[in-house]
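Work Package 4 report. The design task specified in the project plan requires that, given a folded chain encoded as C-alpha cells, an amino acid be chosen for each position. We show below one input record used in the internal validation round.
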C-alpha cells in the first residue's frame, strides 16, 4: 500500500484478503462509549480477472519516513552500511 502510494497509484487489485472479514466489511473502526460498534468498515470491491478473484485496496500516502543510515549530508545523500537494497 505504501509503495503504490509513493508511486502515485491510488488503488490496486490484489488476491490477498479475498474472502476474509477485511474484504467483507463490518469490522469495528470505532466503538461508542457503551462498547457497541459506532463505525464499521465497509465492504471492499471484489472483481474477477481470468477466473481469479481480487479485492481492491486503496494505497497509503505517507507524510514522512524514518531512514537509518550510516552518514548523510545536507543534500539528502545517504550512505548505508550492511543494509539490503530493498
Amino acid at each position: 500500500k505504501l509503495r503504490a502510494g509513493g508511486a502515485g497509484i491510488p488503488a490496486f487489485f490484489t488476491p490477498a484478503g479475498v474472502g476474509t472479514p477485511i474484504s467483507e466489511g463490518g469490522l469495528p473502526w470505532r466503538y461508542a462509549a457503551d462498547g457497541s460498534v459506532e463505525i464499521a468498515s465497509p465492504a471492499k470491491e471484489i472483481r474477477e480477472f481470468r477466473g481469479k478473484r481480487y479485492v481492491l485496496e486503496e494505497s497509503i500516502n505517507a507524510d514522512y519516513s524514518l531512514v537509518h543510515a550510516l552518514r548523510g549530508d545536507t543534500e539528502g545523500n545517504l550512505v548505508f552500511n550492511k543494509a539490503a537494497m530493498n
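The two ends are 15 Å apart (CA to CA). Validation will be extended to a larger panel in the next phase.
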